[in-house]
Each structure stands twice: as C-alpha cells, then as structure tokens.
Automatic annotation (TrEMBL):
It is an enzyme of class 4 (lyase). GO terms for cellular component: cytoplasm. Catalyzes the first and rate-limiting step of polyamine biosynthesis that converts ornithine into putrescine, which is the precursor for the polyamines, spermidine and spermine. Polyamines are essential for cell proliferation and are implicated in cellular processes, ranging from DNA replication to apoptosis. It catalyses: L-ornithine + H(+) = putrescine + CO2. GO terms for biological process: putrescine biosynthetic process from arginine, via ornithine. It comes from Trichostrongylus colubriformis. InterPro entries: Ala_racemase/Decarboxylase_C (IPR009006), De-COase2_N (IPR022644), De-COase2_pyr-phos_BS (IPR022653), Orn/DAP/Arg_de-COase (IPR000183), Orn_de-COase (IPR002433), PLP-binding_barrel (IPR029066). This is ornithine decarboxylase.
Length: 294
C-alpha cells in the first residue's frame, strides 16, 4: 500500500483537492488510499490554544501524529515538543525543529539508552513516577530537571491513563525524599487527567493536589517551579475551548498565584485531529434492505 500523504496547499476546498488527487490516481491506475493534511488547520488550532491559554506553553505530543510537515509547522509557530521515545527525540533534533531545552522526555518509564541519549543532546527535562525510575536516572545524572507525575483519580474519562501512570500521594512523597538522598532535584509536578473528560472539575482537583506537592517538595529543598497539566484536550468549538481556557487560567491563578511558575501542557489531538483526512477507494456499493428500508 502506498499510503501517500498529500499536503493541502490552500488553493482549493479540501473536498475539491481530494477529487483532483483521486482523478490523478485513477488516470494512472492507482487504487490506493491517501491522506491529506491541512496545515492551515494546525496553525489555526495553535492560535486558538495561545489565545485561550496564554500562560501555558504547548509541548506537542509527537506520538499523536509524527508527520514531518505537522512538526515543522508547529515548530515554525513556536510550539515545543513532548517526546516519549528515542526515535521521537531523534526526529525532532535531526530536523532542527527544537533545541534540547524545548523538548520534554515525558514517558515515566525509559531505558537507560533513552535517558543517556537525552542527556547527551541537552534534553534534561524528563518525567518519572516511581522510586525505581528516579534511581535509574540518578545513576546516570543528577543534573536532570525531573518532573514528578502524580496520579489523579475519582472521575471518568474515555482513556484513563492514571491506571498505568502517576504516583499516589504516599509514593510521591517517598520520591521527593529519595531524590534528596540521591542528590537529584525535582523541578516540577505533572498530571494527566485522561482523554475525553467532559467537565473541568477533575482539572481543578488535580491542580489543588499538585499545589500540595509543590509546597511539600519545596519544604524539602526541591526547586519546584514547573507545572505540566498534561494532555487530553479535545478538539472542540472555539467558543467552548475559550470557556475551558478561561476556567483553567482562573484556577491556575487561584491555586498558584502567589508563586513564580512555568506552566506547560502536552496537547496532541487538539492540534491535529481535524487537520487530516483519509481518502479511500470504494470497491463496490451494495444496497440492502433492513427492516424493509434501504
């Protein structure tokens, strides 16, 4: 299968552009699917993010869609990158899309090879959620800017990542103490409420829990100044997302307004879901009667 990716050039409506490509395929005897990427949509979604959430720096989740055209567009318009693997880091760095300072290695469990590659290439910000991962990283370097991922519970989501990732309160405090013993520094707290949460209450609860660990970690001497509110943001209407952004900004101000803070997030589908179209060949149409209706 060819699986061609065609970049929409903006001169035609996407549907007309797709018809032109399909006609070219037909004339050349090609009966394979293709996809179309509309980079104007990517730019528009990034603009919406920056308008609704001006204090939160987006680190695009590369795993969501690693198409190089998308990555280049996001880089050109100021986004940073959330990488979860060594190949993702390599792709961003080899194409000159970001410096190490503009990348977070956000998977809580990493191989030694992955950690060593990150450090060699100036990627010092990385996530963990266990004492074991802390000790692994500390055995390689104590200069990493460690982000402690906490577990958030008590609500429904379409994809609940907290069943796999995130330290509970007891483990979080243990990690903070063990980091002091090892000479490592926790620079931030992160959480991910999951994908498809339909109200803002889980986010408010998560921010309150994060603030408690901010204060606890700072009491132990950790230079905690980064808050990562994760991903799971759904592509929605401009009006709805502006309301969500207003809620998040106000809640951040309420929970963290008294301290200096860098806030980041890891949006993926929000930026790219509605920017890509898949066009497939219909081999045959068969009309069938179901309950007397076609």
């Amino acid at each position: 299968m060819r699986g061609d990716v065609c970049q929409h050039d903006g001169t035609l409506e996407v549907e007309d552009y797709a018809r032109n490509i399909a006609a070219t395929y037909d004339s050349n005897g090609i009966q394979e699917p293709f996809s179309i990427i509309d980079l104007d949509v990517v730019k528009r979604n990034l603009d919406l993010w920056n308008t609704a959430l001006p204090s939160i720096k987006p680190f695009y989740a590369v795993k969501c869609n690693p198409d190089l055209n998308i990555l280049k567009t996001l880089s050109a318009y100021g986004a940073c990158f959330d990488c979860a693997s060594l190949p993702e880091m390599e792709k961003i760095l080899s194409n000159g899309l970001a410096t190490g300072e503009e990348i977070i290695l956000a998977h809580p469990v990493k191989s030694r090879n992955c950690i060593e590659y990150a450090i060699r290439n100036g990627i010092r910000t990385m996530t963990l959620d266990s004492v074991e991962e802390l000790r692994k990283i500390a055995s390689i370097t104590t200069e990493a800017r460690l982000i402690l991922r906490i577990r958030v519970t008590g609500f429904e989501s379409l994809v609940d990542l907290n069943k796999k990732f995130g330290a509970d309160e007891t483990t979080s405090k243990l990690i903070l103490h063990e980091a002091v013993r090892l000479g490592a520094k926790i620079h931030g707290i992160s959480f991910h409420i999951g994908s498809g949460v339909e109200n803002c209450r889980p986010l408010a609860l998560s921010l309150a829990n994060a603030r408690k660990l901010f204060d606890y970690g700072r009491m132990l001497g950790h230079p905690i100044s980064i808050l990562d509110i994760g991903g799971g943001f759904m592509a929605t209407t401009t009006q709805i997302f502006m309301k969500i952004g207003n809620f998040i900004e106000n809640t951040l101000s309420s929970c963290f307004g008294d301290i200096s803070l860098t806030v980041i997030a890891e949006p993926g589908r929000f930026l790219v879901t509605d920017a890509q179209y898949v066009v497939a060949c219909v081999s045959q149409v068969i009309l069938k009667s179901v309950n007397g209706e076609l």
